[in-house]
Design a protein that fits this description.
2 copies of one chain form a homodimer. Chain A is built from 15 helices and 17 strands. Chain A has 460 residues and is of the alpha/beta class. In chain A, helix 14 packs antiparallel against helix 15. Chain A starts with a helix and ends with a strand.
Chain lengths: 460, 460
């Protein structure tokens, strides 16, 4: 401001209004060029917000943004509020222009997203992506390419929609030791489980309703089989534990086999069933290993995650110094995801304006991921057994032989005409491998007609 | 890695382990020098964590940190696990050394903290502080000094302890329009109100218990009169609305006048009483103004903030695109606050290593703060009135004359021997100024013996 005060306007000159007035660098007129790849639910919201709030973006970044092109699969589709001259089906040419500063990828899936991002980086653009599947599969390639090109790769929108969770893990908690991350990170399955719990709907009907409402896709595999949540768990585990974790390293069980009887069992225990993404560090210091898993689990009704309903997401983070933190908000949808994308865009644009980069990947700890067999949790088992003397003893003996300690064992249904009884067993924490061996042995016992369900119990 | 492969060790050379292996810049040996100002509950935890996790800090920053001195008021006090050679009572000399890269201020209060921070910046150090009172009073001076010196000023620990809230507001949501922030940001008052609600304890006894347990200070004014929460509200409002808001601009009411009868009234309504910090934007675009206030309020028992107990904090953020987000965690304490301080320290150290700075202050919107009189909320009033015909009509008339619309009006206690009745009135949303005028008029009504309490109702 000293120079302004000495300008020809004299010492009483009124300071320039706007950003310059609070000591920040005045906006350079040269805009930063932005290319948008994909214009579906998220992309069209991003494009509209870039136009609607252009002045705010300029003030917050210190330079204007200019949307120079939108790569789409099909030309000629009208998007209200978006200049149709921006659309191009030659997305490859868009990322090869060489004058693009910032690329936003909201196409999803592995290809062509991966090639486009790599090409964009080679041509000097920083990238903001919402693509969890790609990051979980090929994060290593992308981060290396960003490093080699000296550009940023940001991805807040890839996990838990609008909820700020990447930046808190990558930056806010970077002076602490995170020990566990546990969350509901898939809204589709959460909606289905909610329906099953609240209205007693069966899985198939709940899925059909989710599809009718647009919460589930025609092919729901990625959601209901846990692939989407596993990709997010891989990203969270990698960030939390300064290691590389790929989607395929995450143990994954979906919700397609959850029955009304499982839900009823959970209710009888004062629990709800949720699809959880869990990342934990086991052991201390250099010996510590990671477990990352996605599976349905029973959690107590008074657990904070139990009340996370519908399409909402929530993530718990536990660390040595900070203790227990929770982050909650809309987990998907055009506007919330666009909010996360644009938060990253401003950060990356600020970095570019200052000729610098964000923190990048941190994988120095290189902790291995251990197998699901080593994971220790509690289990809830439901068994159909003979209703006669000695059966309970045989079953208890089977658990003891496999070193699975039983917390409660109770008969929940009166025997039918056929002399059957239903037993519910809740174990103390046990190794997954031990429990699996125990379940196989139970299946062999003549007194056991069927092992109806086995589900983990978390959050006790 | 190409160069390594061509090194004399031959093409089969094993890649170098550690950070260099994932393509990051190998750590420069020259450490970044850190000075710590204050060694109380937070400071001693920071000092210990810096030593205990030194290798992790080096890997995460890319350069080692070296704690070069700890400024304390009294020498000779032993702090377990901290090298006593680091202590100095000449804190001024510590920040004048000129070779210090990073200064952590956890002294608290206005002076000497302010002068020490300004001196440290003038001598080229970036600063991390947990000092909400100072930021709320003299933030402008500090941010200008940081800008002039080209250094960073980070302050995640100043609001809501370990909960990442500053970075989400300053960075994650910077592409969105935040419309409201509402939170429980003072653990001491939350503990006291919890006691009053849960155990029916009176204010004085609940305060004494908080003091005995170390949750409240001997002089509890800053907490119970809402000064601490008001400073935090000022910081949150400034960040959320890209404006400057000072602590004195925040309307402030403490909890010292909350009675058992207020708590009972809240319970009767299915509510709890919480001390809330609220920052809202009223109006649209360039015309929008800010209101920032701290006061006790009744909120419904099923509101997520209602179950935030004891020394925990929680902050709700509402924005146009992201919707409703919540952040929850420990609001104070040595370790949680140290976690936030050290997250900032790593970020600031990374910036310094890359010769860059973080986003700095964003106050371009320069929105004015409007007075409490303009704020629109619901109110709960408790009145002692004559128990005779015509009284209800007179009271209803008084509300109508002041344009305060009544939602419910009910008699809660049977009349005593003296012909008195107690009335509870809950209003529809009304302007604070209108309500205040109405309360003055009610006080003048011959039929009204006393206005027992007036409390805002939020979160309906």
């Amino acid at each position: 401001m000293t120079e302004t005060a000495q300008s020809p306007a004299g010492p009483d000159a009124v300071p320039v209004a706007g950003p310059a007035a609070d000591g920040a660098t005045p906006p350079t007129e040269q805009p930063l060029k932005v290319a948008l790849l994909g214009c579906g639910v998220v992309g069209s919201e991003v494009a509209r917000m870039l136009v609607d709030s252009a002045d705010d973006f300029t003030a917050r970044i210190g330079r204007p943004l200019e949307l120079v092109g939108i790569g789409v699969r099909r030309a000629g589709v009208e998007r209200p509020g978006i200049d149709s001259a921006l659309f191009t089906t030659d997305t490859e040419a868009l990322v090869r222009r060489g004058d693009v500063d910032l690329v936003i990828e909201v196409i999803g899936g592995i290809e062509p997203a991966k090639s486009l991002i790599l090409t964009a980086m080679e041509h000097g653009a920083s990238v903001v992506t919402a693509n969890k599947a790609l990051l979980a599969e090929a994060g290593t390639d992308l981060f290396s390419a960003a490093e080699a090109a000296g550009v940023d790769l940001y991805f807040e929108a890839a996990v838990a929609g609008a909820i700020p969770i990447i930046r808190p893990l990558r930056e806010s908690l970077v002076g602490d030791e995170i020990t566990a991350v546990m969350g509901i990170v898939n809204g589709t399955t959460n909606f289905i489980l909610d329906k099953m719990h609240g209205q007693g709907t069966g899985y198939a009907d709940a899925l059909a309703e989710a599809q009718a409402l647009g919460y589930a896709e025609a092919d729901p595999t990625a959601d209901v089989e846990g692939f989407d949540a596993a990709a997010k768990a891989a990203i969270l585990a990698g960030l939390a534990f300064h290691s590389r974790v790929r989607g395929v390293e995450v143990h994954r069980e979906g919700i397609t086999e959850i029955t009304r009887s499982d839900i009823a069992s959970a209710k009888a225990m004062g629990c709800v069933v949720k699809l959880l993404a869990i990342c934990e560090l086991s052991g201390e210091g250099a010996e510590a290993t990671i477990n990352a898993r996605v599976h349905p689990a029973m959690i107590p009704e008074d657990h904070p995650l139990a009340s996370v309903g519908g399409a909402y997401n929530a993530v718990f983070v536990e660390s040595k110094a900070a203790g227990r933190l929770m982050f909650y908000g809309p987990g998907a949808g055009g506007s919330p995801t666009a909010s996360a994308v644009l938060g990253d865009l401003v950060t990356v644009a600020r970095n570019r304006t200052r000729h610098t980069r964000g923190p990048g990947e941190s994988t120095y700890a290189q902790r291995p991921v251990h197998s699901i067999g080593e994971v220790v949790t509690r289990y809830h088992l439901s068994l159909e057994v003979d209703d006669r003397a000695g059966v309970l003893a045989a079953i208890a003996q089977c658990f003891a032989e496999h070193e699975v300690s039983v917390q409660t064992l109770r008969q929940v249904a009166s025997p039918g005409e056929d002399g059957e009884a239903r037993l519910v067993v809740v174990t103390h924490p046990a190794k997954d491998a031990a429990l699996a061996a125990c379940v196989r042995a139970l299946d062999e016992l003549p007194a056991v007609h069927e092992v109806l369900s086995v589900m983990r119990v978390e959050g006790l």
